[in-house]
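**User:** Everyone, produce a chain:

**Assistant:**
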Amino acid sequence: MLNDARDLFVAVANALQFMPAGATAILVLLLAAALALIVHELLAWLARRILARDGSYLLAFLRQARGLTRLALLLVALSLALPAAPLSADAGALVGRLLLLATIVLLGWLALTALNIMSEIYLRRFTLDVADNFTARKHVTQVRILRRAVATLVLIITAGAALMTFDAVRQFGVSLFASAGVAGIVVGLAARPLLTNLIAGVQLAITQPIRLDDAVTVESEFGFIEEITSTYVVIRIWDLRRMVVPLTYFIEKPFLNWTRDGSALLGNVTLSLDHTAPIDRIRAKAKEIASQSKLWNGKTFNVQVTDAKADAIAVRVLVSVDSAGAANDLGAELREKLIQFLQQEHPYALPRRRNEILTGDVDPLSRLAAARAPRDEGPPA
């Protein structure tokens, strides 16, 4: 079939010998490109008709790879037509180099497309919009970080291979590799940010100190991991602000990860109350509120006095939930209803400030203030 196509282009070139060589070459190459596009459209139409009965997945794959297959057919047709086109040596070399560059781009594009398709197929079995999404977050984070790292490497290799087709760039690269230490150090320092982020991304994908949708505290800000790119991490703060943190931060500095080993959390509510607060009644009411809420998973519940100061005590309520969002919502519900309960039935349990008044000679502060007060000696003479 390839030989037939080549013979066709040779026949067309022979038929156009009455025209100038440049015009003949352009017409042959344009004919090859047109035939490639026509054949591609016919094959795409035929594939859509055949795959229409098999479901939408193969059709989606065909649409995603449409540009890739069009470029591949175009390169094949131009490569077959190039020997038949009456071009000069310089023009033929230029067109051949352009075809080589296009082939390198095609291979890089093919690698990226295959990478995206494989990762999407693998991630189809995991969903993040469920309460217990620990396993899904683990796999989605690994695949997305590794996909970005591999895609970056593919782009670098593709760009390097394309540049190496030029003699000047090839000689410059050879001289860099052949030269002694200084050039290598310069190149290493220039590539350090890129390599550091790539290595940090691979470390995050393997060790996974953070995952997508993890609840974290970074720089005293609580939020959720919203996006992990090849160079930075986006944290969604509770008030919808976004904190952008470099990847290397999570390798080099400490931070809090509230969902490191699972999606379940212990929500806590701390109330400052008076020393006369009825702890047993508060414990029973908190248990009643938690039992009536759909957010409590029923695994952990506890009410404790965690601190006692001169003017108040700290009462902490612990409840277990299935996600960080549920912990925040259940905590707010407990806090609101417990305060309402105390206001209505035990107002004396709310924080109060006590003052003790001393009178007579037992008040040394009053005597000291009276001694320091200026005496009234009358108007000056």
